[in-house]
Every structure is written in C-alpha cells, then in structure tokens.
Write a structure and sequence with these properties.
Blueprint: H1 7-22, H2 26-30, E1 37-46, E2 52-63, E3 69-76, H3 81-97, E4 104-110, H4 118-132, E5 141-145, H5 151-165, H6 186-205, E6 213-217, H7 221-232, E7 236-242, E8 245-248, H8 255-264, E9 279-281, H9 283-287, E10 293-296, E11 315-317, H10 326-334, E12 338-340, H11 342-345, H12 348-362, H13 368-393, H14 397-415
Parallel strand pairs: 3-4, 3-5, 6-7, 6-10, 10-11, 11-12
Antiparallel strand pairs: 1-2, 2-4, 7-8, 8-9
Helix pairs in contact: 1-3, 1-14, 3-14, 4-5, 6-7, 6-12, 6-13, 12-13, 13-14
The structure holds NADPH dihydro-nicotinamide-adenine-dinucleotide phosphate and 2-oxoglutaric acid.
Length: about 425
C-alpha cells in the first residue's frame, strides 16, 4: 500500500470536498490544483571517499497568492516530486488557517543524512541552495527545517545565499541558529503548538489533561519537543519511537531521560534504550496502543486503510504532515475518533518562522516569552475558529480547517483577479 500511495491525491480530495461545501465551482478551484512553480535540480557532490555522487533535489511553490512561498526542506531517501508537491500544498493551507501572510512551498533532497558525514551534508546543502537560488529570497520563497534538516543546515543555506548575493541576507531562511538571526523559541515551536492544540482539544472534549495517556510516533524535532511539553503539562507519555522502533511503559516513560539519551549522540537509537518497566515495540504497534491521545510525528501515510480500524486512541493530533490518508480519515470519522489535522496542529513551526522573518526584515529581536505568548495567541485563535465552524457545519476538524483555509486562498486569488 505504501508504494502506490500518492500524498498529492490526498490534498486534491480534501480540497474538492471543501470546495463542494463552500459552493465553489470547478473553475474557482482549478488553479489551486496545480503548483505554481516546480524546480528539479541535480546536485553533484564530492563525497568523503573521493567519488562524485549526484543527488536529486526539488523546490516546489504551490501558491504565492497570499504572500511569499514558505515551507521546509526535507533530506530523506523517500523524497519525490509528488511528496514535495503535497507538502507544498499543505503549507499553503497551513499558512492560511493560521492567517499568516504566506503561500506554500517545500523542498527536498533525496539522501539519507544518517549515512552522510557533516561535510557531505554541508556540501549537499550549499550546492542545493545555489541550484534553487533563482527561486528563493525573503520576498519570494523562504525555506525552513523539515525532516532530516536542522538549524545548522539553515545557517549554511543563509550563508550560501548571502555569498551569491554579495551581502548578508538573514530573511531568506528561518529556523536558523540564534547567532544568525534565528528566533528564540523556533526550535521548540512546532512541538509547543502541538501541546497547545492537544490541551485545547482535550478541554473541548471534557477530558482532563492530568494523567491522560499519549503515544508519540517519532522522536525528532517535533516528536521530542511534543513529548517533552506534553509530559511537562501533566499528560502521561507511555510510548515514543524513532526509525528503529518504539518503547512502551503503560505507567509512563521517563521522557527527560529518554530525550537526554537521544540528544547525547545522533547515532543513539531507541532500540538500544532500556529502562525498568519498558518494552520494545514496532512503529506499527505504537500506533495501535490503547491510549487516549496519539501523536504521529514522523512521516506521511502512517495511519491508512490497513490499520485505521485498529487504532484505539480517542484522539489523534497530527504533528507530522499527512500522517493520515483520506481512506483512513473516513474510517476514523465513522468510528468517532477525533483528528486534529496537520495544517492546524503542527502550524506552530511556521508561525514562529513568520516571527523570525518579521524580526529579520525589521532588524529587531523579541524575547522568548514574547514569541511563546504570540504563538499561543495565534494557535488558540485558529483552534477556536476551526472548532466553532466544525460545530456549526457538523464536519470533521480537518474539513473545518480546510473550509477556513480554502476560502482565504480563493478570496486572495479572486482579489488579485488571478484568473481572467
Ligand atoms: N520541523 C518542523 O518545524 C516541522 C515539521 N513538521 C513535520 O513533522 C514531522 C517530523 O519532522 P521533524 O521532527 O522535523 O523531523 P526529524 O528529522 O527531526 O525527525 C523525524 C523523526 O521520525 C523518525 N522516523 C523516520 N523515519 C521513520 C519511519 N519510517 N517510521 C517511524 N519513524 C520514523 C526519525 O527517526 P530517526 O531520527 O531515528 O531517523 C525521527 O525520530 C514531519 O512530518 C514534518 O514534515 C511539521 C511542521 C514543522
Ligand atoms: O517553518 C516553516 O517555514 C515551515 C515548517 C514546515 O515545513 C512545516 O510546517 O511543515
């Protein structure tokens, strides 16, 4: 099933369903079905062993109707054009649902960072940046971190772009190191937004947060910060995983100890982590645990027609982009399992990226408290508006989020008279 899965079909389906509810004609949404710009690049790199390897990369701008394209860069072996297209479109709707002045874009390089040295990753980043330089810029398209990339990679992008332009340009990329104009709070922002959203939905459903059980799939930037902040908020994180599999303790995991172990060395894997009361489970088993909240924070297509009937969680908070397929969505809705959609739940990252860009272009800096407070205000307001619309229209939260986002994108296109 995973091989034939095309995430861009998922995007088109939800957009078409939302358009039908909004009463839009095919012409109203025709332009939204096609990414505005797609660039495929070849990236020759001299590897540490002296051989030359040519990596394939992409930068795709789905929409710039509401502002410059915005979205992360993924370094992962499974990167492909349809995945980047879907990720770019999700960015368009994510920025619209939280109402920040951006369109959507995404980039990726087909590579496995776990098998590359730091020198090789830096060489890929520099050559990739040079290749996509005609498309990016603070007013055109602003990359950020995603799977397999981090603040260091963003710093190399900023440096390469600045070298090409002949002067320092902080605002070309967000999620940078603090020394290069990175925003305080950006590293934790996506997970912090996931935590705010989880607390918001629990409150609406009348479930107390204290002691509520959570399973988190993924222990990278988003998974680890989500687990940490949910743990600090009083929830009981009973399972977490990385690419090697997961660990489970029904009495609750020692999240600080696990995160210190993972942070100590990038080669540390959860399959080698042992603690009293903890059992090792697969990523598939983690998704089917008897928990109240499931937080998928790894890749797309994790909850699909093959396992949706087996999900025991009452509530899924999508920290990853596209973890649930359209088929699974229908099954979960019929089973009464609430899904807080990716474009809302994981929007904290791009919201703080927006704050970083605003600070960069104005040459000002905000405190971490200011950033976190403004983030909470935006996440809470977006959640409330989606929740209220969902109640009014009797739809899922995903549909509620798309109704708001699609209307904003169509209104912007129409105000610009993008179609003749
Ligand atoms: N970074 C950001 O700001 C944002 C990210 N997102 C989304 O969140 C998700 C995670 O991104 P991020 O945390 O940045 O990425 P990271 O690269 O930091 O972490 C990815 C995590 O997923 C694990 N993983 C990789 N492959 C698999 C697999 N096949 N099964 C289970 N786990 C796997 C990785 O394990 P290992 O480390 O062992 O390889 C790692 O724990 C993605 O969907 C991304 O698009 C959404 C909004 C913003
Ligand atoms: O911070 C950003 O600009 C985008 C982060 C991202 O790629 C995402 O939200 O999926």
């Amino acid at each position: 099933m995973k091989q034939s899965y095309n995430p861009y079909d998922n995007v088109l389906k939800v957009v078409q369903d939302a358009a039908a509810i909004l009463g839009y004609s095919d012409s109203d949404i025709e332009a939204i079905k096609y990414p505005e710009r797609e660039l495929k690049v070849s990236i020759p790199v001299r590897m540490d062993d002296g051989t030359t390897h040519v990596f394939q990369g992409y930068r795709i701008q789905h929409s710039t109707s509401r502002g410059p394209a915005k979205g992360g860069i993924r370094f992962h072996p499974d990167v492909n054009a349809d995945e980047v297209r879907a990720l770019a479109a999700w960015m368009t709707f994510k920025c619209a649902v939280v109402n920040i002045p951006y369109g959507g874009g995404k980039g990726g390089v087909v590579c496995d960072p776990s098998k590359l040295s730091e020198n090789e990753i830096r060489a890929i980043t520099r050559r990739y940046t040079a290749a996509i330089a005609p498309l990016i810029g603070p007013e055109q398209d602003i990359p950020a971190p995603d799977v397999g990339t981090n603040a260091a990679v963003m710093g190399w992008i900023m440096d390469t772009y600045s070298m090409l332009k002949g002067h320092c340009i902080h605002g070309v990329v967000t999620g940078k190191p603090l020394e290069l104009g990175g925003a305080l709070g950006r590293n934790e922002a996506t997970g912090r937004g996931v935590m705010f959203t989880t607390l918001n939905i629990l409150k609406k459903l009348g479930i107390p947060s204290e002691g509520t059980t959570v399973a988190v799939q993924g222990a990278g930037n988003v998974g680890s910060v989500s687990a940490k902040l949910l743990h600090e908020a009083g929830l009981k994180v009973v399972a977490i995983s990385d690419v090697s599999g997961g660990i489970y303790n029904p009495d609750g995991l020692d999240i600080p100890a696990i995160l210190s172990y993972l942070a100590a060395d990038r080669r540390n894997l959860l399959k080698d982590f042992n603690e009293d009361g903890t059992t090792h489970i697969s990523n598939e088993e983690l998704l089917e645990l008897p928990v109240t909240v499931l937080v998928p924070a790894a890749l797309e297509n994790q909850i699909n027609a093959g396992n949706a009937e087996k999900i025991q969680a009452k509530l899924i908070v999508e920290a990853a982009n596209g973890p649930t397929t359209s088929e699974a969505d229908e099954i979960l809705a019929k089973r009464g399992i609430e899904v807080v959609p990716d474009i809302l739940a994981n929007a904290g990252g791009v919201v703080v990226s927006y704050f970083e860009w605003v600070q960069n272009i104005q040459s000002v800096s905000w405190t971490e408290d200011e950033v976190n407070k403004k983030l909470k205000d935006i996440m809470d307001a977006a959640f409330e508006s989606v929740w209220d619309l969902t109640q009014e229209k009797h739809t899922t939260l995903r549909m509620g989020a798309y109704l708001i986002a699609l209307k904003r994108v169509v209104d912007a296109k129409s105000a610009r008279a993008i179609w003749p």
